[in-house]
Write a structure and sequence with these properties.
Length: about 190
């Protein structure tokens, strides 16, 4: 991994964790907050691929597990799976494409909320899905999607300007070698 990528993740993960667990938890209605760790995991999956997203999801999930859960590993595993599944769409389209990440964050948020419902409510004997859907899933989905629309361009700009600042020139300088070799039948 590149040093700039590690530095960016090391700064973003704690900031997003603090935003999710303190600032927005207090200001949101009834303690609802956007899922910033999932937002960061999906953005890293789209921009950097499944490996970076899984590492981001693991660290962010472990932070949530350590500070807020009785057991260790549920959110870490949940975010690792979300990072892996969303990372499968990496490099399929241009990173400036906005529709695919929106669909990824929508699907990841719905699936994580449904798994939370299954493990925290159904297994404890609470089967009030309508209440969960209206009072928890929809508001958190709305806030997460809204904040994703704000955060994604900022992280994309950070990725292009800071992390990938010198890589584009290197690719362009040497790309003509591969193109001419392919036109001549692969020799070279």
């Amino acid at each position: 991994m590149d040093f700039k990528r590690i530095l960016t993740a090391a700064v973003c993960i704690p900031i997003f964790f603090v935003l999710q667990t303190t600032v927005f938890r207090v200001t949101g209605p009834e303690g609802m907050a956007p899922n910033f760790i999932l937002i960061l995991t999906v953005i890293y999956a789209w921009l950097r691929g499944p490996r970076a997203a899984m590492i981001c999801g693991l660290i962010g999930g472990l932070l949530i597990d350590i500070f807020f859960m009785n057991g260790l590993g549920f959110y870490a595993l949940l975010y690792v799976y979300a990072g892996f599944v969303c990372g499968q769409a990496h490099s399929s389209l241009d990173v400036r494409e906005f529709r695919i990440p929106i669909l990824l964050i929508f699907g990841a948020e719905v699936l994580t909320q449904l798994l939370q419902f299954l493990f925290f409510f159904v297994l404890n004997g609470y089967f009030l899905f309508r209440y969960f859907f209206l009072q928890r899933l929809l508001p958190e989905l709305f806030f997460t999607m809204l904040l994703f629309i704000v955060v994604y361009p900022l992280l994309l700009l950070l990725e292009e300007r800071f992390v990938n600042s010198g890589k584009a020139e290197e690719k362009e300088d040497w790309s003509f070698i591969d193109d001419t070799a392919d036109e001549k039948g692969g020799a070279g």
